[in-house]
């Protein structure tokens, strides 16, 4: 088996999450800076280089609304981060992210939310948008301009991109990780370069052939059409796509040396820094590119930005290659992280053929297959917008359920023992039969490794740090709740008949219907798995994996 970068631990994940942090640290090597890099590298992917022009089109060229929506998007993302932090800091430090939060609140039927989340993560957690964008920028660098009729060439390059990433992770996992860490440096460099160019243009140290004045009449729409709720909701979905990755550290807490420090320092710092950089990049685009060209730039806004500055020169060809390398890094990160999430879901029997996908290589091939299908199937002319919306939309329902669940926990904190300490420090790391007590020394759970599952861990145990428990502010909960209700409902409302959105080849209702249907497919799988999944290797029930980490993390 090919070596991995994860630690060798000779115990199951649920058992391992119960040992004290002081003992767990010797197994791990992800520190605060590494986790910040993990978040920033995923957040700064393709979104900021591709979606700004699409969002500007949804805003009808209204600069004031455009900037306001980016600001709102940043606030929504930070509110979501705060909510996830409360869950993460009040539950065992283990892998899984949102799956654990859903299972903690929605406990009956047992495992239903795990199945719903697994289908959303596996079927819609693809890298199609990033791989497609890689192909776009590679062709742009070769041809010096966008050739909209050559979409199949873009798709072929995108397939080669995801194939290369999966091959690298399977055959050379250490080298693959080193490569996407290196590519992450380019992302920061490009953002800083764009911001610096925008600043130099604004103070006239760089002269443009044409005068750009996008900041006069801020709230005047170029297209002379009124903005509607549908276009604004889709624009917000696109903005949230640009911020995707803020939750990345929550997926791998089992591999982190000091999860509390990472969650309270690294994650918020990474999100704030990236949000500031994003907003400055958006302003730089508006300083350099006229409204009319921004409305017609498709997904190559960064390429047009560099053409405006450097003209049709070799530099304008090289910089899009750097952007495509950023896209490549994002595909590598997403394929790596999501494959490990798929593997974790398979270990707990949430997926069809779970035994097969417990192998990390098989989970990588599953991610490759879904990515290729989603990238090739839609009509070429609208693939990127559709893929982005389909990737993000189901997450709004997951976020909505998590927020409702947190409100429930706040309202029933005593009955749910939410935010209360459990004496996990008293547990021996090598104990095979221990007990958990509440603050009144009442027995909550008799721990036995033969019957212990992830449900027991999430429901009855909390973190063993000695610091105060974190609680999300009410304003953040309200913002995240209302925003996700808006984002979940309004894509179903048809756009005005005179809107260009009503003339799309892919109907407006397609991505919300497909996204919601995938979640319902998880419900169907939960109720019918006992008839559909009867092979002998289904030894354990749902959520009851006893897979030994030593088998997977061997270096032989």
Please, could you describe this protein's structure?
The protein is mainly α and 556 residues long. It has one domain: Amino acid/polyamine transporter I (Up-down Bundle). It is built from 23 helices and 2 strands. A two-stranded antiparallel ribbon has the order 1-2. A hairpin with a 5-residue loop joins strand 1 and strand 2 (443-448). It is globular. The N and C termini lie close together (6 Å).
Query: CATH superfamily name?
Result: Amino acid/polyamine transporter I
**Total count of strands:** 2
What gap, in angstroms, lies between the N and C termini? 6 Å
User: What is the CATH class?
Assistant: Mainly Alpha
Q: Which structural class best describes the helix and strand composition? A: mainly alpha
CATH topology: Amino acid/polyamine transporter I
- Biggest pleated sheet: 2 strands, antiparallel
**Largest beta sheet: what is the strand line-up?**
1-2
Low-confidence stretches: 1-22, 421-452, 535-540, 546-556
In DSSP terms, counting alpha (H) and pi (I) runs of 4 or more, how many helices? 23
> What's the overall average pLDDT, rounded?
75
User: How many distinct domains?
Assistant: 1
| CA gyration radius, whole angstroms | 24 Å
Instruction: Give the ordered list of helices and strands.
Output: HHHHHHHHHHHHHHHHHHHEEHHHH
Write the CATH architecture name.
Up-down Bundle
- The dominant shape is globular
- Helix fraction bin: 55-70%
Beta content: under 5%
């Amino acid at each position: 088996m090919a070596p991995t970068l994860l630690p060798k631990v000779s115990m199951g994940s649920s058992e391992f999450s119960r040992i004290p942090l002081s003992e767990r640290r010797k197994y791990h090597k992800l520190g605060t800076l590494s986790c910040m890099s993990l978040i920033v590298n995923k957040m700064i992917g393709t979104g900021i280089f591709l979606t700004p022009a699409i969002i500007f089109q949804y805003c009808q060229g209204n600069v004031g609304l455009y900037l306001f929506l980016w600001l709102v998007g940043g606030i929504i993302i930070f509110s979501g981060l705060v909510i996830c932090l409360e869950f993460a800091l009040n539950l065992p430090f283990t892998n899984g992210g949102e799956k654990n939060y859903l299972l903690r609140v929605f406990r009956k039927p047992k495992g239903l939310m795990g199945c719903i989340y697994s289908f959303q993560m596996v079927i819609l957690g693809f890298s199609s948008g990033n791989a497609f964008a890689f192909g776009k920028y590679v062709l742009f660098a070769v041809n010096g301009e966008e050739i909209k009729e050559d979409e199949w060439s873009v798709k072929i390059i995108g397939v080669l991109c995801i194939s290369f990433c999966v091959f690298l992770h399977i055959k050379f996992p250490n080298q693959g990780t080193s490569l996407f860490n290196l590519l992450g440096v380019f992302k920061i460099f490009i953002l800083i370069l764009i911001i610096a160019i925008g600043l130099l243009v604004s103070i006239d140290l760089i002269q443009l052939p044409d005068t750009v004045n996008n900041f006069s009449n801020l709230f005047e729409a170029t297209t002379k059409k009124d903005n509607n709720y549908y276009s604004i909701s889709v624009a917000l979905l696109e903005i949230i796509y640009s911020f995707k990755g803020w939750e990345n550290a929550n997926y791998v807490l089992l591999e982190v040396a000091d999860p509390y420090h990472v969650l309270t320092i690294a994650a918020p710092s990474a999100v704030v820094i990236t949000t500031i950089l994003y907003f400055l990049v958006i302003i730089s685009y508006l300083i350099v590119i006229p409204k009319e060209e921004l409305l017609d730039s498709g997904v190559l806004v960064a390429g047009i930005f560099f053409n405006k500055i450097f003209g049709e020169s070799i530099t304008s060809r090289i910089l899009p290659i750097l952007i495509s390398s950023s896209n490549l890094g994002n595909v590598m990160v997403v394929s790596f992280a999501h494959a490990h999430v798929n593997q974790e879901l398979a270990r707990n029997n949430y997926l069809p053929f779970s035994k097969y996908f417990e192998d990390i290589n098989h989970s990588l091939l599953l991610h490759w297959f879904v990515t290729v299908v989603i990238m090739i199937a839609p009509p070429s002319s609208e693939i990127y917008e559709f893929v982005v919306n389909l990737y993000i939309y189901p997450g709004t329902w997951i976020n909505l359920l998590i927020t409702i669940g947190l409100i429930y926990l706040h309202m029933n904190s005593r009955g749910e023992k939410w935010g209360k300490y459990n004496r996990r420090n008293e547990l021996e790391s090598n104990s095979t039969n221990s007990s958990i007590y509440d603050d009144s020394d009442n027995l909550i759970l008799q721990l036995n490794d033969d019957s212990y599952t992830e449900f027991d861990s999430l429901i009855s145990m909390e973190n063993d740090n000695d610091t105060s428990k974190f609680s999300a502010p009410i304003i953040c909960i309200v913002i995240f709740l209302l925003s996700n209700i808006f984002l979940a409902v309004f894509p179903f409302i048809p756009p005005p008949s005179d809107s260009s959105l009503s003339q799309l080849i892919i109907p407006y209702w397609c991505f919300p219907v497909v996204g919601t249907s995938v979640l319902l497919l998880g419900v169907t799988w939960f109720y019918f798995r006992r008839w559909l999944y009867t092979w002998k290797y289904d030894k354990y029930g749902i959520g009851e994996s006893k897979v030994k980490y030593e088998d997977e993390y061997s270096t032989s």
